[in-house]
């Protein structure tokens, strides 16, 4: 009996996923502060090196979007906790379903008691019991809304997000679970994990409209342009945290951050007056004092300062 043919778009996605896996596996020469290359990142190497010397696990990556040249690669293939950054994968799945009209962005979803969770987000403080799917995606992107995340995950399913992640060729990056106030022994130990090389690739692909298709990519970028958290790498860009959807002093940013106990992570794409860069930084550290946390944030700001200098050269 003849096997049924797979749809053409499915075969195309498989081929693209294989190409992405090969590209991400390709060996690259590591960049070190002593090589003399990319001198505008010497401060980054020094700052992140100090954090690593103090015991933090540090990973960083940056790529020029026009040339594809690797600007920064510090343990960029190791897998670290990325907290809320993994919510990007949920947004991609939601956007893809809207594009394919599997459901409407105007479809209404209710919040239920099992969805309830604290920390980041504003829906938990609002009276509205229901919101449209597209509005929930905007809340996830803008304030990393945990309640909205859980409601969307209940609608699309974690398995679908994992399948979408695999179809993109991502092997070290994943959304592992829904958001929980506390994690027990039977729960995933982290909300999400990722490697900075894959997160850098993902933001570059979004910027090039290559994630699923152009419409899906543009919708995700629109949601991410609402992000209010500019406390890490993006703190160096001088942008208004509440209003930076357009270019400000020739700087245009889309980004997503992740924050948890002992975890600070950010990935994004930033365009300047002369260049554009995709970047990602993840740091896992002993968050036993305010001073330790501030050193991590200062190190991430140093990365942003070097990126700013590069894109405006």
UniProtKB/TrEMBL annotation:
Residues of the region (Disordered) are: 16-36
Q: Which GO terms describe its molecular function?
A: beta-lactamase activity
Please name the top-level EC class of this enzyme.
hydrolase
Keywords of this entry: Hydrolase
User: E.C. number, please?
Assistant: 3.5.2.6
Q: In the UniProt record, does the keyword Nuclease occur?
A: no
Cite the Beta-lactamase class A catalytic domain residue spans from the record.
61-281
Q: Which Gene3D superfamilies match?
A: DD-peptidase/beta-lactamase superfamily
Q: Name the coiled-coil region(s).
A: none
Against InterPro entries, the record matches this protein to:
Beta-lactam/transpept-like (IPR012338), Beta-lactam_cat (IPR045155), Beta-lactam_class-A (IPR000871)
Hydrolase is among the record's keywords = yes
Which stretches are tagged as biased composition: Basic and acidic residues?
16-25
Q: What PANTHER family does its record include?
A: BETA-LACTAMASE, BETA-LACTAMASE-TYPE TRANSPEPTIDASE FOLD CONTAINING PROTEIN
Q: What is the name listed in the Swiss-Prot or TrEMBL entry for this protein? A: Beta-lactamase class A
From what organism does this protein derive?
Antiquaquibacter oligotrophicus
């Amino acid at each position: 009996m003849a096997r049924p043919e797979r749809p053409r778009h499915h075969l195309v996605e498989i081929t693209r996923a294989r190409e992405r896996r090969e590209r991400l596996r390709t060996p690259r020469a590591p960049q070190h502060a002593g090589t003399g290359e990319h001198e505008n990142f010497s401060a980054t190497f020094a700052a992140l090196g100090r954090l690593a010397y103090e015991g933090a696990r540090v990973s960083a990556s940056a790529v020029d979007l026009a040339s594809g040249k690797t600007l920064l690669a510090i343990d960029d293939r190791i897998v670290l906790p990325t907290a809320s950054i993994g919510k990007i994968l949920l947004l991609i799945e939601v956007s893809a379903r809207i594009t394919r009209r599997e459901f409407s962005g105007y479809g209404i979803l209710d919040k239920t008691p099992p969805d309830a969770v604290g920390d980041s987000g504003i829906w938990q403080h609002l009276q509205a019991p229901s919101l449209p799917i597209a509005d929930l995606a905007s809340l996830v992107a803008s304030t990393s809304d945990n309640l909205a995340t859980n409601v969307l995950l209940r609608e699309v399913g974690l398995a679908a997000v994992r399948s979408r992640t695999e179809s993109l060729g991502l092997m070290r990056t994943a959304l592992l679970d829904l958001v929980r106030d506390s994690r027990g022994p039977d729960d995933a130990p982290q909300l999400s994990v990722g490697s900075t090389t894959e997160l850098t690739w993902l933001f570059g692909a979004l910027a090039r409209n290559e994630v699923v298709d152009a419409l899906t990519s543009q919708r995700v970028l629109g949601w991410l342009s609402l992000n209010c958290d500019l406390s890490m790498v993006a703190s160096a860009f001088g942008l208004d945290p509440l209003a930076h959807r357009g270019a400000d002093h020739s700087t245009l940013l889309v980004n997503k951050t992740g924050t948890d106990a002992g975890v600070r992570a950010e990935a994004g794409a930033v365009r300047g007056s002369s260049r554009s860069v995709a970047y990602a930084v993840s740091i896992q550290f002993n968050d036993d004092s305010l001073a330790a946390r501030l050193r991590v944030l200062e190190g991430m700001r140093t990365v942003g300062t070097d990126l700013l200098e590069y894109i405006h050269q």
